[in-house]
Amino acid sequence: MYRSFNQFISQNDSLDDSRLQRNARVTCEFEDYFDINEILMLSERTPVVVSKDICRLGFLDPTSDQADLRKGTQLELPLWLAKNLYNMYSVDIQLPKAFSHFYVNIMRADSSCVDLKRLQPNYYKVGRQLMALLPIEAHRISELLVTTFKGRFRKITDGAQNAQIEETDQVTATFDNDERAMFLEGQKVIFDLKRWHDKTRRNKIHTADLVVNHRKRKWEAHYNDSNISGKKMNHSDGTSGNL
């Protein structure tokens, strides 16, 4: 597969500088080559339509036994491959099912009920990739991502604050990978805060006995001085009255 793809690239050296610049800009955007999560995201299937005949890539279409990909063929490719072919003007990228009008309406109604883990495990990252690849759809995708996140944010935070560790898999069963990471981070913060409270409660600072005794003696001395002063005043008042 990779050898045939490299052969195809070498046969298309006639791409002008503007295409190469566009290819480099879009391909590198949002990507970290050594990040396993990024690799998994770029492996998600993306629907495309072949816009011209492509030599020696017919094996990408499981329904065809031809050596070449024919124009108009509809198939799903890994996102990394779809991006490269798109930048070579060989395919047109279509919106995945998670970004279709049907799911747009569902997200606007109540996004918290959607199982993103099954629908699109890297929903937000794929959406950002599509925004870079499809400028015409970028604004609509951006609004959809914000709407979806707003509708699901409360569910994420409530779960992070109240769910026990053994309930993590159950609570995050419908979360996409970014939401799950956010949930785990929030849960860690809550546990760290509880641990800090427990630690301060156990290690509460108490007043030293020496200080307590010193304050007690000081108070007793002050109390005795006050009593003595009061008695003297009463005695002097009685003496002046007799005179």
Automatic annotation (TrEMBL):
Residues 223-243 are annotated as: Disordered. SUPFAM superfamilies: GINS helical bundle-like, PriA/YqbF domain. Keywords: DNA replication, Nucleus. It holds the Pfam family Sld5. Residues 34-86 form the DNA replication complex GINS protein PSF3 N-terminal domain. CDD domains: GINS_A_psf3, GINS_B_Psf3. One of its GO terms (cellular component) is GINS complex. The keyword Disulfide bond does not apply. It is found in: Nucleus. Residues 103-197 form the GINS subunit domain. One of its GO terms (biological process) is mitotic DNA replication initiation. Required for correct functioning of the GINS complex, a complex that plays an essential role in the initiation of DNA replication, and progression of DNA replication forks. GINS complex is a core component of CDC45-MCM-GINS (CMG) helicase, the molecular machine that unwinds template DNA during replication, and around which the replisome is built. Belongs to the GINS3/PSF3 family. Component of the GINS complex. This is DNA replication complex GINS protein PSF3. The lineage of its organism: Eukaryota, Metazoa, Ecdysozoa, Arthropoda, Chelicerata.
